[in-house]
Amino acid sequence: MLKPLSSFARLTAADFHSRKRRWIWAAVMYGIAGICALFAVGFGATALAVWIAALYDPIIALVITAALFLVIAAIALIVNSIYQTRAKRRIRRNAALRSAAVATAMVSLRRTGTAALPIAAVVAGALLATQLTGGDDDADE
Question: Is the pTM value of this prediction over 0.70?
Answer without folding.
Answer: no
